[in-house]
Amino acid sequence: MFRKIVSNLAFSPALVGQLGFYAKRLKKEEATRRVGLIFTALALIVQSFAVFSPPEPVNASSPSDFIPGGVSTLSGYLSHYDANTNNIKDLFTTLGITRTNVVNARAGEINSKGVYSWGLTSRFSAAQGERSYTIKTANGGTRTFYMRPLSNWDTGANVAGGSYYQAYIGTASNGTWFALTKICGNLVLKVIPPAPKCPTGTVGTYPDCTVPKCPTSTIGTYPNCTTPKCPTGTTGTYPNCVTPQPTAKCESLKITRLINNYQLDATSSTANGATITGYTYVVKRDGKVVETITKSSSSTSYTAVTTQTIQGAYTVELTVKTSLGDRAGPDCVKTFNIPAPEMCPQNPSLLKSSPECQPCPGDTTLWIKDEQCRASVVLTKTASNITQDEVDATKTTAQASDKIIYTLEIANHGKAPADVTPTELLDDIVEYATVADAGGGTYNSATKTLTWPTVTLKPGEKQTRLFTVQMVKEIPAMGTGTSDRTSYDCKMINVFGNAVEINVDCPIQKQIVEQTVAQLPRTGPRENMLFAGVVFAVVAYFYARTRQIKKEVRLIRRDLNAGTI
């Protein structure tokens, strides 16, 4: 249109009116496009804030996270590794993951299918694939970690294909694949590692490992224990080694019981110039020395008397003092018994009068400290929605203000008493409900834990605990947690032996938004800024073009007024 008016203006000066009308339209168009350019620039600035300073959800961290709040750089993760935050260095050392392995890890993305996520707290039951793993810590104690399928956190559209997580991916020294998630710092493995074993040279069950020692009367370092022998060219039993000539020998020892005493008759012999200098009797009861009788004498026989009244097994060891040294032997060791008291029926190594001689409460044929005499506590849990006619709460959807009764059952199926402190972690429940009745327990709002006093369960005994929660009047529409996807996921999950999962009637807007977000294409800061830049360039182009045409119209009108056209 502009070209047509300008080309015909020399032939029809009347067209100058249309040129003026066109100039007014260009002025309005310029104002409109200027406003569009300003709003586009503002939108680009707002978008940059969202990219470079993204919002964080209020529940971005979980007590189960290795590193609360996660990390954004590998050097940040190494700082926590060197500080042994939450004993992650101790865990990695046990699993064979070195600092060099962590340094060599590379940033990438992992899928939740077929891998196990480690955490500091228990979240799922054994039936849902959760396992515990206990290690020794650098300070001499122990710590338990929990591993469970990462896919347990998948919801909605992610159940089939899995969820994706940003992580640092590496390989341990033993060739095992591992990943360190950025969002929480948790370790991810493809396999469940075997339980740690005691190091070579130690015995026991990990982490209770001990270094064995050589038995008494042997020398060396276990297991290379040896019994010392007399040097070549000597005879006797070490350390009583003698040369063949001259000779002296302890011939015999005879024990005769008197009324309240025991007569000890010793005989010895010498040859080749050896002489007798004395006798020593060592009286032992149950392996412990109770009396030593020493007498100087040059005679080849000697009689001594010992008085013993305490019950037990006695051994008398005779040593003949000679010019060649002490002489003893099997013929100079005799025993006698003072009848032992009645022994414990369940453990013959104890006296019946011993305080430890007690039968197992669940089986009187077993000793109370026998390995088979132990407790076996089984925990189970159910829930009923009393607002909805006391139906099984796991088979219905909890509505606002509903009341739900949880029933905890503690049963001892073992043969020994067991001290049990019933404890319930309610962190996932109190997101949608409050504790209406603690059932005799104590609720700690800081740790979100409900605890009952410790009870002693006899063998075969069963006890129950009840507590009630009431759903809030208005179900919150808060988004599902980023680090812990069981947080605000429209479900109440907790574990007491078995896991109980109750669906919650969340607001429809939450369900629509989360379903829509899950189906949106996955874009990052680069794509968003590129799109905003293209829009800004297009708007700027049309604004500049309008200003250019407006200037051309002004020049043409000036030339027309000057008569050059």
Describe this structure as you would to a colleague.
This protein is an alpha+beta fold. It folds into 4 domains: 12-53 and 525-562; 74-189, no CATH class; 235-338, Immunoglobulin-like; 377-512, Immunoglobulin-like, CATH 2.60.40.10. Helices cover 21% and strands 35% of the residues. It has 8 helices and 36 strands. The strands form 11 sheets. It has a 7-stranded antiparallel beta sheet. Strands 16, 17, 19, 20 and 21 form a 5-stranded antiparallel beta sheet that branches. It is elongated, with a radius of gyration of 45 Å. The protein starts with a helix and ends with a helix.
Number of domains: 4
Please identify which CATH superfamily of the largest domain we are dealing with.
Immunoglobulins
Mean pLDDT: 84
**CATH level 3 topology of the largest domain:** Immunoglobulin-like
Principal-axes shape call: elongated
Structural class: alpha+beta
**Major sheet: size, sense and barrel closure?**
7 strands, antiparallel
Alpha-carbon Rg, integer = 45 Å
Name the CATH class of the largest domain.
Mainly Beta
The N- to C-terminal Cα distance equals 19 Å
Uncertain spans, ≥5 residues at pLDDT below 50?
Answer: none
Helix content: 10-25%
Contiguous helical run count: 8
- The number of distinct β-strands equals 36
DSSP strand (E) fraction? 25-35%
**Architecture of the largest domain, CATH level 2?**
Sandwich
